Amino acid sequence: MKYYFLMLLCFVSLLSYGQEIDNSSNTIEVEDFQELDSIDVYKIKRLSFGIKLGIPNIAGFSLEGITPLLGNRIAPFADYSSFPVNTVDTDIDLTYTEFGSNFYFGNQGKGVYVGIGFGNLKPNITFKEQEFEENGNRGIGTAVVSTQIKTTNLKLGVKTGGRVYFRLELGYGIGTIPTTIELNGTFTYTDGDGNIQTGTGSETEDFPAIPGVSTNGVLVGNFGFGVSF
Question: What mean pLDDT do residues 199-219 have?
Fold first, then answer.
């Protein structure tokens, strides 16, 4: 009887010990999974190169680099584009550059961010069929004017992760936009003897319309995509 009682006691002890080991293993597995969950397994892609479509870029190239500063939140960028905007009265060749930095709210170089940039919009404007006057002589000619519009751009954006990324930005560029422009050009006219002469003159015209540009600043709105490394 004592033998059977001792066997039963050993059996119960083994069961209890086995249960403790099993519970301990489960605890270790749970803790291991929790530890794995706390580890950032996403590999940050530091360099992004792509295209932006919108205003004032129209269509241009974009470069961004994610730095380790502030936990991978600071990302300098540079944008460049060159495009024509032609109308009946003017031909405008626009060059746009912007340099600045984005600040990501997350620590993986993706997601929502705010950005500040310094934009420089350089329109090279050709006024066609422009009327000039010099010493009472009037005629039609052309005038070419180069100017630049500098703005401080504040933006809110979102960018996806992965090898191929997409981004969306909305914001506004604060700057001084001219309302008029001074034209200096050459023109031809017919003198009193019927001969064609060439003269030079100057006129003041309204600043031509450029998409997204108003008297108070420049609208910023674009969609971008590209690859990240």
Answer: 83
